[in-house]
Specification:
alpha+beta, binds adenosine monophosphate, globular, binds glycine, D-amino Acid Aminotransferase, Chain A, domain 1, 440 residues
């Protein structure tokens, strides 16, 4: 089996490692020279991941059987449509099905039309004047989001990032004047609670869930600072979250299953990884957003404990014959902390050398995945994005967190930053207490 991995981040390094582990010959395409992926690959080519024709040409000329698309941009560009036309199986939705992520109004409209539970009240606008009137008439805090893709940086919450209606209006005006996201604005009800991620393998019909994950979007310890792509994440040995009750979990999984059924009913079957970002509120889980791919960092947590063959799962997704009985995860906890350049989230310091001792990291009971670094000659340099994800793995969260911290010492370089509180008992307890307080 020859598989092509598209994308050059930590998520894609985890995907490539899981494919390699399950006996696949890995080929890769990415923008940056990620040494972790390159090392696992028979052949790597550096090119824009959204150049669908070039990617397809590479895939056909190398006899690729299966392609796993990591990031959202190539999905939006229609890479799956082009590869499937060439007869190549894909783990990733078509351009139309990827709208669950690429259009926030599409996702909410589908949920509304098919009465999928867990939706939030929303209104979508393609004109500033109408959005302005809506905000003026509203007496609630709303969440303001560009409808299209913004690389995780476009969402602003009234009462948090935007203190007054005036600031909210100014932001909406900016979205239209700068055409942020390229498709107008959606104003949503603000959900209050604790967030968690439920990712699932989908073959258009069947939905097979992965362990729950909690990501940490704020840049600094204690959940302060700017929102980022995610600073780190953890999973527990029982594959749940300590603040998520069984009924909440079942409700979230039901939402994912009903969304996949809705897409099928729309004539737009969803195939690939469906990522549900949930806010657990006093009234149960609410959908914050869907992503049409693995989360990054979340992929590093779940794929590190996948105990069945990822190649087998990918083949099942691509052929529409996913078998839940052949998917299993080890009962281990994981803690992933991202090493990022100082200033990540605002003004990151790029282009500095970083060195990683992979063997020493393995000896600590951890794994390392290279992210948006660039290898030039025999040296590795940081970029403006996240540099490397270190994942501690153990029987308990406490040990996994310790393993991660010990392993982080083997990542060396200047001007690097890590959010050390991720996976620590104190922060997890804060989430549990917050949820208890919300439930009253
Ligand atoms: P997103 O890029 O959609 O994941 O949004 C970034 C962050 O904004 C989320 O992780 C939430 O913390 C917050 N957020 C987004 N939508 C809502 C909402 N409707 N209610 C409350 N918080 C939200
Ligand atoms: N960690 C959030 C994301 O991948 O969008």
């Amino acid at each position: 089996m020859k598989a092509l991995v598209v994308g050059g981040g930590g998520r894609e390094n985890a995907i490539a490692a899981a494919l390699h582990r399950s006996g696949t010959e890995v080929y890769s395409i990415m923008k940056n020279n990620n040494p972790g992926i390159a090392k696992l690959s028979v052949e790597t080519e550096l090119m824009p991941e959204t150049d669908t024709e070039r990617v397809a040409q590479f895939a056909t000329s190398h006899g690729i059987d299966l392609a796993v698309i990591g990031p959202e941009a190539p999905l939006e560009a229609g890479l799956v449509d082009v590869l499937e036309d060439e007869g190549i199986g894909c783990v990733g939705p078509t351009k139309a099905a990827a709208r669950l992520e690429t259009s926030k109004s599409f996702a909410r409209t589908i949920m509304r039309r098919h009465k999928v539970p867990g939706n939030l009240d929303f209104a979508a606008f393609n004109e500033f004047s109408r959005a302005k009137a809506y905000i003026k008439d509203s007496n609630k805090d709303l969440v303001i989001k560009p409808i299209g893709l913004t690389g995780g940086k476009g969402v602003k919450v009234m009462g948090e990032h935007l203190k007054t209606k005036k600031e909210a209006l100014a932001y909406i005006e900016e979205i239209f004047s700068k055409n942020i996201g390229g498709a107008g604005v959606i104003l949503e009800e603000k959900a209050i609670g604790e967030e968690f991620t439920l990712q699932a393998f989908c073959d258009g019909r069947s939905v097979v869930p992965m362990p729950l994950v909690q990501d940490h979007k704020r840049a600094y310890d204690g959940d302060v600072g700017p929102n980022t792509g995610g600073m780190g994440s953890y999973t527990l040995e029982d594959h749940r979250m300590p603040f998520v009750r069984n009924e909440d979990y079942e409700a979230a999984l039901d939402i994912v299953k009903k969304t996949v059924a809705a897409m099928r009913a729309e004539g737009c079957p969803y195939k690939g990884i469906l990522y549900g970002q949930f806010m657990l509120t006093a009234d149960g889980p609410r959908v914050i957003e869907f992503n049409a791919r693995f989360g990054d960092p979340e992929a590093m947590n779940v794929l590190s404990v996948l105990s069945s063959s990822f190649t087998d799962i990918c083949s099942g997704i691509a052929s529409g014959r996913l078998n839940a009985e052949r998917v299993s995860f080890a009962n281990k906890a994981t803690v992933c902390k991202y090493v990022v350049p100082e200033g990540y989230g605002t003004e990151p310091k790029a282009g500095l050398e970083i060195s990683i001792d992979e063997e020493a990291i393995a000896r600590e009971g951890a794994m390392v995945y290279y992210a948006m670094v660039d290898k030039k000659g025999d040296k590795i340099f940081t970029t403006t994005s996240r540099a490397a994800g270190v994942v501690g793995i153990a029987d308990t969260l406490e040990e996994a967190e310790e393993n991660c911290e010990h392993a982080l010492k083997h990542v060396q370089g200047s001007a690097l930053f890590v959010r050390h509180d991720i996976g620590k008992a104190e922060l997890v307890q804060k989430r549990i207490d917050h949820m208890q307080q919300i439930r009253g």
